Structure formats: structure tokens, C-alpha cells
């Protein structure tokens, strides 16, 4: 089974990545190197069975950027065994990266590092990887020397003790930071600028008189490089008086610098394809009255302003009904029906007997198939439109099987159609259901196609 990674392992994996960051962020001109000798107080891991002790550290460092320093750190410490029979002698070398949260009178930094730690006890010496993280402060005590204090957590991967994979020690360091090498030269002091030569600007427009081609500009007006008032769109009206300062070139304008709009429809004359629109009419971007449904009748006169495109309309913009049967011309399949004729939803005269060829049932049952809904919904719509209609629903079968079964099944199918219609709001008083079995065939029962035609439902109009 895979063992979980220890915190030291994770530190050793991540630390090289952190150490590589300052190298990539280093500036082109780093400051000089420094040394940092420090005294250490070590709070030993309790599992060492050692007393706390003291040690020394010495770092050789280099500032790489505003945020990063890199240090090579040597450390040495001695920890006595708690039983007094020996001592730990530890010497280590590691590479540390310091990240400065701020630099200044009081500098604050965090650090992370990896290295090797040699630990000697009587009769044995081990060399093991180590890692540490910490926080520290630097405070200047002279022009070049800084006082330095820090706290570090050190992970030592020594494993002499059974059941322990590392020791965790706490180090408190105090020391100084001393730079060496040539000090950077101070920046040269800025020389005072020569006194400016004052030139006259009589109209206070920012253009001196010797360059001002319009020396009497009204105070506070914007001017160009020649001292003349700005006319951004070159329409002859200066910007201070121009209410439309971005007029396209060569357009006809009024005294305010705006394009003319003779019919006041909001579309300037240069773009208005209908320059004499009646006042207060709504227009399109071309300045012509809107015709939202494109039927040729403008919206202001259109009483049916959502007519489908391509359909002929009357003078009011509405679809015509030539025969007055209530079915508009665009859907009327019988546009010349007789006056007062009862018509179906297609505009054609209602038949006395209607065979529902699109109504089907599951084999040997009175259950309607889903494809029957289309035709039956049309019957619902017709009966809603003609509320005085009374209909007899007649069911028929072919001649196969016992007649008493056929008669019973045909009536159940007629009742299924009635139930469909009443479920959709048609009054039961307007409907009658009858089953006639194999009576009244309309095709030859000796053929499969004939028997299929005889298995049918008919609607008989009893009252219009």
C-alpha cells in the first residue's frame, strides 16, 4: 500500500520550485552581496530526548530584486542528551530563498530552504536531507548594518529512532546583516532648471501672441495650435456654439451646427428617404413611416399590424374574407362559399357524414392511438366554432368474428371518440355514441383493404 507523503517530503518537492522563482524574477541590476552571522537558540523535538541548546549560523546572501534574496546558509549546534550520556553535534549547509513582504525601515520577510544536515552522536554519524521555513525581520542600526531576527521551523529527516521519520526543531536566530563590496554611488543631485522665459499671451488661451493667429479669442474657449477656436467637424460653427460637434463633412446644417431635419421625424435630411413625413408618425431609420408587418399599410393606418408576410390585405391592413364565412382568405380552401353556409375550419361546407380516416385504435381494443389526436382536435375546433352542432358518432367493424363481439367493440370505439371530445370541452349533450358492428359496409369485406375501410368511425350531423 502506498505510504502517505510526510510534510518533509512535500517540503523537499516544493522547495526547489520556490527557490527557482527568485532567479526568474531577478532584476537586471541587483545590489551587492552581504554576510549575516547569527546566534541560534534551538528548541529540540521532544523525540530527540535532548535538551534545548545554542548554535551559530552564517549566511552569504545576494539581493536579487525588490522582493527576493538568495542565501547560502551554514549552521552548527550542539544538543546534550537529556540523560547526560552524550550529545548531538549538527552541522548543515542549505540554500534559502527570502521573500520580502516589505522593505524599508522595518523589513519583513518569509523564507524557505532545503539542504543537508550532518548529525553526529557518540559512535555514529548520519547525513540526511533537511528543510526549513520561517519568518523574519530586519532593522537598520547604521548606514550599512542591519539587525536581523527570525524564527525557523527545521525538518530533519534523521530516522535513528524506531517509528520516527524525522525530527521537527524550532530555531530562533538573532544576528546582523553586513554588506560587502563597493557601495553604490549616490544619484547625482538634480540641477535647478533655468528660469523660464515668459512670453505674452494676451487672450489667455495658452498660445503665445507670437504664434496666435486669433489673438482676441473669448476667454475660456478651446483653441487649436494656431490659437483659433476649435471646429472639430469643420462645419463652420465653432465647438463652443456647435450643438452637434461631429457632423459629417458637406452636410447641410442649421445655425446650431446640426444637420437639418425638415419634417422633424428625427432623421436628418441627408439620410431621409421620405422627407415629408406627416408629423408625429413613427419612422424607420430611412425616415419612412413604419410598416411592421410589411403588408404595404403603414402602422399608423394598419388595424392589423401583425399580418403574416406575403398575405394580401385590405385597405385597413387586415386579411380579407371574400365570402364572409369567417375563414380568412389565406386559409379558406373554399373562398366562394354560399352566404350563411355552415363551413368547417378550412372554409368549406360541412358534410352531413364525415368518415374519420385518421382515427385509429389499438388492435382488438377501443384505445385510440396517438396519431388520432390531429383529426379529432380538428373536430373539437369545428364544434367550438359552431356551438349549435349536434353529432352522432357511429362505430363500425368488418365482418370477421362473432357479430355480438363486433357490435360491442364498435360501440366502445364510438364511446372512446365521444370521451375524447368531452374531455376537451364539448358538451356531452351534443354527442351520441352508437355501435353498428359489421352493418353498412362501404367496401368489400373479402379483401384486406376493404375490411380496413369498413373498420371506421363516422360523424353524422344531426343538427347544424
UniProtKB/TrEMBL annotation:
A GO molecular-function descriptor: calcium ion binding
Lipid bilayer topology: Multi-pass membrane protein
Chain segments annotated as transmembrane: none
Major site of localization recorded for this protein: membrane
GO cellular component: cell outer membrane; pore complex
Keywords carried by this UniProt record: Cell outer membrane, Ion transport, Membrane, Porin, Signal, Transmembrane, Transmembrane beta strand, Transport
Subcellular location: Cell outer membrane
BP GO terms, sorted: cell adhesion; monoatomic ion transport
InterPro entries xref list: Bact_OuterMem_StrucFunc (IPR050330), Beta-barrel_OMP (IPR027385), OMP/PagP_B-barrel (IPR011250), OMP_bac (IPR006664), OmpA-like (IPR006665), OmpA-like_sf (IPR036737), Thrombospondin_3-like_rpt (IPR003367), TSP_type-3_rpt (IPR028974)
OmpA-like domain sequence ranges: 348-464
Keyword Glycoprotein: no
Name the UniProt record assigns to this protein: OmpA-like domain-containing protein
Amino acid at each position: 500500500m502506498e505510504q502517505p507523503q510526510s510534510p518533509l517530503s512535500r517540503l523537499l518537492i516544493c522547495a526547489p520550485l520556490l527557490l527557482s522563482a527568485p532567479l526568474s524574477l531577478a532584476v537586471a541590476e541587483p545590489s551587492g552581496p552581504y554576510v549575516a552571522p547569527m546566534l541560534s537558540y534551538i528548541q529540540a523535538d521532544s523525540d530527540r530526548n535532548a535538551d534545548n541548546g545554542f548554535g551559530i549560523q552564517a549566511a552569504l546572501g545576494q539581493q536579487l530584486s525588490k522582493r527576493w534574496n538568495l542565501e547560502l546558509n551554514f549552521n552548527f549546534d550542539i544538543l546534550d542528551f537529556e540523560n547526560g550520556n552524550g550529545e548531538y553535534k549538527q552541522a548543515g549547509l542549505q540554500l534559502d530563498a527570502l521573500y520580502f513582504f516589505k522593505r524599508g525601515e522595518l523589513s519583513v520577510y518569509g523564507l524557505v530552504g532545503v539542504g543537508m544536515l550532518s548529525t553526529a552522536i557518540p559512535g555514529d554519524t548520519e547525513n540526511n536531507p533537511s528543510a526549513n521555513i520561517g519568518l523574519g525581520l530586519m532593522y537598520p542600526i547604521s548606514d550599512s548594518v542591519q539587525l536581523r531576527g527570525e524564527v525557523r521551523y527545521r525538518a530533519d529527516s534523521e530516522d535513528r529512532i524506531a517509528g520516527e521519520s524525522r525530527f521537527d526543531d524550532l530555531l530562533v536566530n538573532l544576528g546582523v546583516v553586513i554588506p560587502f563590496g563597493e557601495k553604490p554611488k549616490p544619484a547625482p543631485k538634480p540641477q535647478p532648471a533655468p528660469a523660464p522665459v515668459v512670453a505674452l499671451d494676451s487672450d489667455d488661451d495658452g498660445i503665445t501672441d507670437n504664434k496666435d493667429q486669433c489673438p482676441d479669442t473669448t476667454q475660456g474657449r478651446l483653441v487649436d495650435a494656431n490659437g483659433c477656436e476649435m471646429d472639430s467637424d469643420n462645419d463652420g460653427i465653432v465647438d463652443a456654439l456647435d450643438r452637434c460637434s461631429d457632423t459629417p463633412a458637406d452636410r447641410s446644417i442649421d445655425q446650431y451646427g446640426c444637420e437639418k431635419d425638415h419634417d422633424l421625424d428625427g432623421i436628418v435630411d441627408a439620410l431621409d428617404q421620405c422627407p415629408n413625413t406627416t408629423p408625429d408618425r413613427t419612422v424607420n431609420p430611412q425616415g419612412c413611416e413604419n410598416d411592421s408587418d410589411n403588408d404595404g399599410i403603414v402602422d399608423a393606418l394598419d388595424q392589423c399590424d401583425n399580418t403574416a408576410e406575403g398575405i394580401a390585405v385590405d385597405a385597413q391592413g387586415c386579411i380579407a374574407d371574400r365570402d364572409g364565412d369567417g375563414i380568412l382568405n389565406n386559409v379558406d380552401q373554399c373562398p366562394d362559399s354560399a352566404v350563411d353556409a355552415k363551413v368547417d375550419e378550412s372554409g368549406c361546407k360541412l358534410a352531413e357524414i364525415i368518415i374519420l380516416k385518421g382515427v385509429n385504435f389499438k388492435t382488438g381494443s377501443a384505445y385510440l392511438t396517438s396519431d388520432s389526436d390531429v383529426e379529432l382536435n380538428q373536430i373539437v375546433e369545428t364544434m367550438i366554432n359552431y356551438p349549435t352542432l349536434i353529432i352522432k358518432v357511429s362505430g363500425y367493424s368488418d365482418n370477421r368474428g362473432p357479430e355480438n363481439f363486433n357490435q360491442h367493440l364498435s360501440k366502445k370505439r364510438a364511446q372512446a371518440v365521444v370521451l375524447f371530445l368531452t374531455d376537451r370541452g364539448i358538451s356531452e349533450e351534443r354527442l351520441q355514441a352508437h355501435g353498428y358492428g359489421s352493418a353498412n359496409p362501404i367496401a368489400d369485406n373479402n379483401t384486406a383493404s376493404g375490411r380496413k375501410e369498413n373498420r371506421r368511425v363516422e360523424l353524422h350531423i344531426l343538427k347544424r
